[in-house]
């Protein structure tokens, strides 16, 4: 009996030590950073924040805060789903490893983000705000969150299930529609007004996609040659 | 798949070729392999070995570089995105295959599931924006120490972040041109992995999409016709919006023109333009709704200019414009001029007194707010608003303005015929009759011009890593209800509170010249001269309040007198976020005479104390809200029968997650009393004006999502109940009537979306029972609405039918139907129309022997049926 207690104690202590030493799981990489963007490694640990650098690897529990001119684009490592985070936004990135994917949950305190999500197993990509929970099934959408006014989810493609946490009401938001989840529990959807779609600093417009892209080459005789590629 | 694939390319024209490269990949995979092509007998060729082939086919492209730096590619258009394709047939039955042998390349390498995260194949970037990233998430057994990453042949491994899951490299700024990344890896068993190779471009000419001019907009038109009973309202409107800009400057403009616009009303057309310079400076022009602080300016439309400059430690806002435009007169009889009366002078001649009304002065508004942020922890701000009616904006003589002369306004004394006149017609009529006209230049019978000055201070602080916030605001307002006669002089001030011009304010004398009571006794020479400050505020006898604080109360209790100044508003608020609790406590008071023309929606004469807490538990799945609010109007000690209200509210929501039922329960209890009151005499009878009531309000809502074959649905069940109690019922007289309305409501709403057909439906059923003054009223509503889209969502059709049955004094059935269609004529051109009509059926009208529809017949076939309302709405909208 004494031995059982002894081994149980060792086992529990081992679990504790293993748990303490377990490194946070790596979930994404920052592919573009502009303006003021702060990263707090593992929000739960409340460590000090530092400036987020392009190429930085993001882990489960990392907290990102963008300033008035800040912008971040990040890509998740399991399926290449991407997140674009605009100015004046605060969010926590969490990701739990599953067999061949990462169950992602973005805790958006406030601000604006765009999620371009590769088709997911249901519930594996969630954006949670103080007002709403958006369960993503493979889509492209903007989420604009304000803890006081509520949230606006602008669907660009695919389907997002938007649930208001105050009333428990839920509805599917598809491309071309905007879901409004209000702090009073209300949940409505309407046709998207194009002007309400935030600018994506990282995306070429349809018009710009038709632009001519130029790459300049300088030869040994200092002559400059230009490679012209037309994108449709 | 067991044979080499030879790819060759030749030239039909002479070109100075320096290098030809073959890029290939298994169809639809992320990255390309790269192989230099060899020149032999007039063509360039390269071989793809069987281990590099894929059963799904091979995609390839060829890029040729000439000695003068030009690039040519095949395919010519978007070669990396739309490469050539070669079908690969599986190997025949001959030959022996071993498990896993398809993963081993001919050169003794194995393939691995490596995902290129950034940059994309063929992507063009600014030279400084390059981040190279690959995911090893799904690649097992990679030896991270074996990883080598090269860009254009230069080894950057030392600069890369390499983990078991990710390779990330942010290289120094790269030269413009085409770049090739090669990543070499090996397994923990020492077997090489097929290198990952792909290319991307950089250009100093690259223009960030954000820096390109982007624009969008919308133009629309709407015509609508609504008919309710015999009233018909036709409206036509045109709207336009446009937005353009680059990252650092953006502009938005909007326009609304409506047929309801009239010079007799405040403007209904809207014009606005907004220019934003980054996140720092915003300039607004036209119609806009500025927000400075709720106590000064919030929710009021202004036509003018607004500036908002926000830096890290400094925030300045300015607004200048008009909140009301001048209206010379209304479009109604006696709403421009009116005859105030007729007298006769000593000669017997009639004197007609004409007056103006129906006008509105132009109201000028200027408001400013300056706030400083100290170390992102404390903030201090000052705000001021001045609003003044422009007296000269309203003309004494106007072109329209028809008024009536009849026996009611002449007292039967008139030398001109009873009829309607314009001013010119009337002046001409009385001049011929020998009568006189009395028409004042100011103090007309309509509204008097007013002025409002508000100023205040705001303080705030954030503590404990922003988890605790404290804010305090204090504002004082001055209002002048009549500035026709401008600022008062010192002599006028002397007699403002008493009748004697003695150089002292507030001193009254008895018939013996002795001072009466406890006088205010302020020497007019010792106080400021109002005339010197008339550009800031018009000081005269019409000021409200005349003195901002109670002078006598100040002598007794200075602090209390200042806090309860009737023209002040203030609040103190603490907000915190600890242990999953989001709580706030606020004390707020708005004096009975506090007014800001910038926020007409602010409730005055109210004191309130609010406590609220919100806690999120179970990973935000369980929400508990609780609040307590005390309200009273007992700000001034002189308030008669002050009321007080205590409201408690609790809310619990359990929402486990999407596709799972959720429940919300809400309970509110509100006790209101004015127990200081007694009875009041109305005419000859005595009325009990005491109030002590309790109102209980409860709501339960269950949301039940479910899926059936071919359909996803959501069922919402709501139950709502309000009960009122008179807590003084036992003390009332038998004939006292307690005015209250109790209600109970039950509602079911089922929304469904069909997966196989583009149909959405909403079905709702509800029953409501009201009890008012002992009578019961019941409503039953049944409704159905469906939306169906066809032609790939280019056409959307919707239709709805509602039935309402009400019973109480009479039974009535109301049928309402709505139909509509949206049709995209072009991709961005939408045509839409809706039509609705409502019919009421009152069975009792069929047998009541009365002509209910006014057609001169009683109880005929359609006597009980009436078209209540109808409307048609057509819109066209184009987006660009």
Describe it for me?
- The longest helix of chain A has 20 residues, at 2-21.
- By secondary structure, chain A is mainly beta.
- Chain A is 10% helix and 52% strand.
- In chain A, the strands form two sheets. Chain A has a 15-stranded mixed beta sheet that branches. In chain A, strands 16-17 form a two-stranded antiparallel sheet.
- In chain A, a hairpin with a 3-residue loop joins strand 10 and strand 11.
- Chain A contains two helices and 17 strands.
- Chain A has helices at 2-21, 206-209; strands at 26-34, 37-40, 49-51, 57-59, 62-66, 71-76, 82-85, 90-97, 102-116, 125-128, 132-146, 150-164, 170-174, 177-182, 187-191, 212-218, 224-230.
- With 880 residues, chain B is mainly beta.
- In chain B, 4% of the residues lie in helices and 51% in strands.
- Chain B contains five helices and 53 strands.
- In chain B, the strands form nine sheets. Chain B has a 26-stranded antiparallel beta barrel. In chain B, strands 2, 3, 6, 7 and 8 form a five-stranded antiparallel beta sheet that branches. In chain B, strands 10-17-16-12-13 form a five-stranded mixed beta sheet, with no helix packed on it.
- Mean pLDDT of chain B is 86; it is low at 92-107.
């Amino acid at each position: 009996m004494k031995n059982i207690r002894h081994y149980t104690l060792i086992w529990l202590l081992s679990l504790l030590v293993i748990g303490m030493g377990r490194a946070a799981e790596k979930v994404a990489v920052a592919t573009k950073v502009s303006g003021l963007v702060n990263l707090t490694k593992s929000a739960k640990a409340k460590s000090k924040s530092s400036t987020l650098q392009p190429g930085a690897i993001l882990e489960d529990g990392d907290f990102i805060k963008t300033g008035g001119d800040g912008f971040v684009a990040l890509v998740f490592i399991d399926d290449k789903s991407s997140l674009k985070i605009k100015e004046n936004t605060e969010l926590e990135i969490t990701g739990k490893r599953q067999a061949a994917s990462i169950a992602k949950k973005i805790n958006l305190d406030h601000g604006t983000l765009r999620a371009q999500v590769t088709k997911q197993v249901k519930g594996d990509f969630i954006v949670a705000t103080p007002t709403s929970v958006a369960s993503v099934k493979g889509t492209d959408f903007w989420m604009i969150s304000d803890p006081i006014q509520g949230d606006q989810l602008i669907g660009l493609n695919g389907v997002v299930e938007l649930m208001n946490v105050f009333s428990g009401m839920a509805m599917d938001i598809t491309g071309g529609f905007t879901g409004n989840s209000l702090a009073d529990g209300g949940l409505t959807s309407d046709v998207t007004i194009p002007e309400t779609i935030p600018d994506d600093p990282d995306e070429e417009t349809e018009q710009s996609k038709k632009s001519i892209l130029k790459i300049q080459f300088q030869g040994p005789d200092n002559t400059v040659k230009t490679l012209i590629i037309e994108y449709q | 798949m067991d044979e080499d694939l030879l790819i060759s390319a030749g030239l039909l024209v002479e070109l100075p070729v320096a290098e030809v490269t073959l890029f290939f990949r298994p169809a639809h995979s992320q990255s390309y392999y790269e192989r230099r092509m060899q020149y032999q007998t007039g063509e360039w060729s390269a071989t793809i070995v069987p281990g590099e082939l894929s059963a799904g086919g091979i995609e390839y492209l060829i890029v040729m570089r000439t000695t003068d730096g030009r690039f040519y590619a095949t395919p010519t258009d978007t070669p990396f995105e739309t490469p050539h394709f070669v079908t690969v047939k599986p190997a025949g039955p001959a030959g022996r295959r071993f498990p896993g042998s398809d993963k081993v390349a001919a050169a003794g390498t194995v393939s691995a599931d490596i995902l290129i995260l950034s940059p994309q194949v063929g992507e063009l970037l600014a030279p400084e924006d390059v981040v190279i990233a690959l995911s090893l998430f799904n690649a097992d057994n990679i030896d991270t120490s074996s990883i080598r990453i090269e860009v254009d042949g230069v080894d950057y491994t030392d600069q890369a972040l390499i983990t078991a899951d990710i390779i990330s490299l942010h290289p120094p700024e790269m030269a413009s041109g085409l770049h090739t990344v090669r990543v070499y890896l090996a397994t923990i068993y020492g077997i090489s992995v097929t290198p990952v190779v792909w290319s991307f471009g950089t250009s100093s000419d690259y223009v960030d999409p954000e820096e390109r001019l982007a624009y969008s907009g919308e133009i629309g038109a709407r015509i609508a016709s609504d008919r309710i009973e015999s009233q018909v309202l036709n409206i036509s409107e045109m709207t336009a919006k446009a937005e353009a800009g680059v990252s650092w400057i953006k502009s938005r403009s909007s326009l609304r023109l409506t047929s309801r616009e009239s010079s007799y009303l405040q403007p209904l057309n809207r014009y606005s333009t907004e220019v934003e310079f980054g996140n720092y400076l915003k300039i607004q022009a036209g119609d806009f709704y500025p927000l400075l602080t709720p106590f000064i300016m919030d929710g009021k439309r202004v036509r003018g200019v607004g500036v908002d400059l926000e830096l890290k430690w400094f925030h300045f806002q300015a607004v200048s414009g008009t909140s009301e435009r001048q209206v010379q007169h209304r479009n109604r009889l006696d709403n421009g001029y009116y005859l105030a009366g007729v007298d006769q002078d000593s000669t017997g001649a009639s004197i007609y007194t004409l007056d103006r009304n129906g006008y509105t002065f132009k109201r000028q508004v200027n408001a400013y707010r300056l706030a400083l942020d100290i170390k992102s922890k404390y903030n201090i701000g000052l705000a001021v608003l001045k609003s003044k009616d422009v007296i000269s904006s309203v003309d004494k003589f106007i072109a329209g303005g028809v008024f009536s002369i009849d026996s009611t306004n002449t007292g039967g004394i008139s030398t001109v015929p009873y009829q309607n006149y314009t001013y010119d017609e009337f002046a001409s009529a009385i001049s011929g009759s020998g009568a006189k006209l009395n028409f004042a230049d100011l103090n007309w019978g309509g509204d008097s011009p007013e002025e409002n000055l508000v100023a205040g201070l705001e303080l705030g602080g954030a503590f404990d890593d922003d988890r605790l916030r404290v804010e305090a605001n204090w504002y004082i307002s001055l209002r002048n209800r009549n500035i026709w006669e401008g600022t008062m002089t010192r002599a006028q001030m002397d007699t403002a509170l008493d009748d004697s011009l003695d150089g002292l304010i507030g001193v009254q004398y008895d018939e013996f010249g002795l001072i009466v009571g406890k006088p205010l006794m302020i020497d007019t020479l010792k106080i400021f001269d109002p005339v010197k400050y008339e550009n800031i505020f018009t000081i005269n006898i019409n000021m409200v309040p005349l003195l901002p604080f109670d002078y006598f109360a100040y002598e007794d209790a200075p602090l209390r007198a200042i806090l309860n100044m009737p023209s002040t508003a203030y609040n103190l608020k603490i907000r915190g976020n600890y242990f999953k609790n989001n709580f706030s406590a606020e004390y707020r008071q708005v004096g009975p005479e506090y007014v800001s023309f910038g926020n007409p929606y602010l409730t005055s004469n109210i004191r309130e104390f609010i406590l609220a807490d919100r806690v999120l538990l179970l990973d935000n799945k369980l929400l508990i809200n609780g609040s307590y609010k005390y309200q009273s109007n007992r700000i001034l000690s002189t308030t008669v029968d002050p009321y007080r209200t205590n409201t408690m509210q609790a809310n619990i929501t359990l929402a486990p997650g999407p596709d799972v039922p959720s429940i919300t329960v809400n309970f509110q209890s509100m006790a209101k009393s004015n127990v200081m009151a007694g009875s009041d005499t109305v005419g000859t009878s005595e009325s009990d004006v005491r109030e002590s009531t309790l109102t209980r309000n409860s709501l339960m809502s269950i949301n039940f999502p479910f899926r059936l074959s071919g359909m996803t649905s959501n069922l919402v069940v709501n139950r709502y109940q309000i009960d009122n109690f008179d807590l003084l019922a036992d003390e009332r007289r038998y004939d006292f009537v307690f005015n209250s309305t109790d209600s109970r409501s039950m509602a079911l709403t089922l929304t469904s979306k069909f997966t196989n057909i583009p149909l959405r439906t909403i079905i709702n059923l509800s029953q409501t029972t009201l009890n008012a003054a002992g009578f019961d009223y019941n409503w039953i509503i049944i409704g159905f609405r469906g939306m169906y889209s066809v032609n790939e969502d280019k056409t959307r059709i919707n239709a709805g039918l509602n039935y309402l049955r009400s019973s109480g004094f009479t039974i009535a059935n109301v049928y309402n139907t709505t139909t509509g269609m949206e049709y995209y004529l072009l991709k961005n051109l939408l045509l839409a129309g809706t039509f609705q009509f409502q019919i009421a059926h009152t069975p009792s009208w069929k047998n009541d022997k009365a002509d209910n529809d006014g057609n001169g017949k009683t109880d005929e076939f359609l006597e009980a049926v009436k078209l209540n309302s109808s409307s048609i709405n057509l819109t066209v909208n184009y987006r660009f």
